[in-house]
Amino acid sequence: MALFDAHFHIIDPRFPLVMNDGYLPPPYTIDDYWASAGPLGVAGGAIVSGSFHGYDQSYLLAALARFGPCYVGVTQLPDDVDDATVRDLDRAGVRAVRFNFFRGVTADPQAMAHLARRVFDLAGWHVELYVDGYALYELKPILLSLPRVVIDHLGMTENALPSLLELVWRGAKVKASGFGRVSLPVRATLQAIAEADETALMFGSDLPSTRASRPFYPGDVELIAGSLDATRAERALFHNAVACYRPAQVAV
Residues 87, 92, 98, CA angle at the centre, nearest 5°? Predict the structure, then answer.
């Protein structure tokens, strides 16, 4: 079965990094990623900007150029980004803007909502949120008003599930990723989300799993496949993310 990896990071030491809470990640290059992801049968994916990337786009543009049309980007942007920059990034393959509440990169929900609507109107981008249960509950009224929303890492904590499912019922997507950083029953959470909407789950490796209690390993793919029936598993591992990210090309 082909995989679309909807969540991984590239940490290229040639480009700027930003310390977050005293943390700077070790390098994780495209070659490092392929050494891990290639044997899994990954056919496309989404390169996601982490807290340590700040608002740098140079690493992402370089990675997208090398990965090619089967891959897309998820970036972070300042509130005052100009329209031309958004359109240029869209032409380069960026498909979403990420807001990181969990690491304290994003602080203003209203500014987030304003930018979310702007990028959707300009380029059809969705928003992605790194957020846990309490913050997800607080943000839920705003998120329900946004055009397209993706939640990272199953919502992180078990108390996120009621809010998460309400968002899923209203069309939100959820990344089946970061199993080594969550505090929730992964199998039961996967099943609850798939039952709410079989188009919602999107596999992500979360490589290189920076600051997670354990890194991604291939058994995480098997956990997704074994938690769902065959149709829902295939959707979660490939088709849902392709429909969400709209890569220019995917080699199956």
Answer: 70
User: How much is the mean pLDDT over the chain?
Assistant: 95
Confidence band for 107, pLDDT divided at 50, 70 and 90: low
Predicted confidence at residue 252, as pLDDT, reads: 55
Q: Which domains does the chain have, with CATH numbers?
A: 3-245 (3.20.20.140)
pTM over 0.85: yes
Q: Which residues pair with 74 in a beta bridge?
A: 48, 96
Name the amino acid, one letter, at 123. Answer: A
Say whether pLDDT at 251 is over 60. no
The SS3 assignment for 107 reads: coil
Question: Residue 159, exposed/middle/buried by CB under 10 A (0-12, 13-18, 19+)?
Answer: middle
What is the per-residue burial (b if ≥16 Cβ within 10 Å, else e) of 6-43? bbbbbbbeebebeebeeeebeebeeebbeebbeebebb
Structure confidence by residue, pLDDT tens digits, 33-42: 999 999 999 9
Phi, psi of 161 (to 5 degrees): -60, -45
| CA–CA gap between residue 68 and residue 50 (Å, rounded) | 21
For the chain, what percent of residues have pLDDT higher than 70? 97
Q: How far apart are CA 83 and CA 34, in angstroms?
A: 33
Helices (H) and strands (E) in the chain, counts: 10, 8
Q: What are the φ and ψ backbone dihedral angles of 235, each rounded to 5 degrees?
A: -60, -50
Which residues sit opposite 202 in a β-bridge? 175
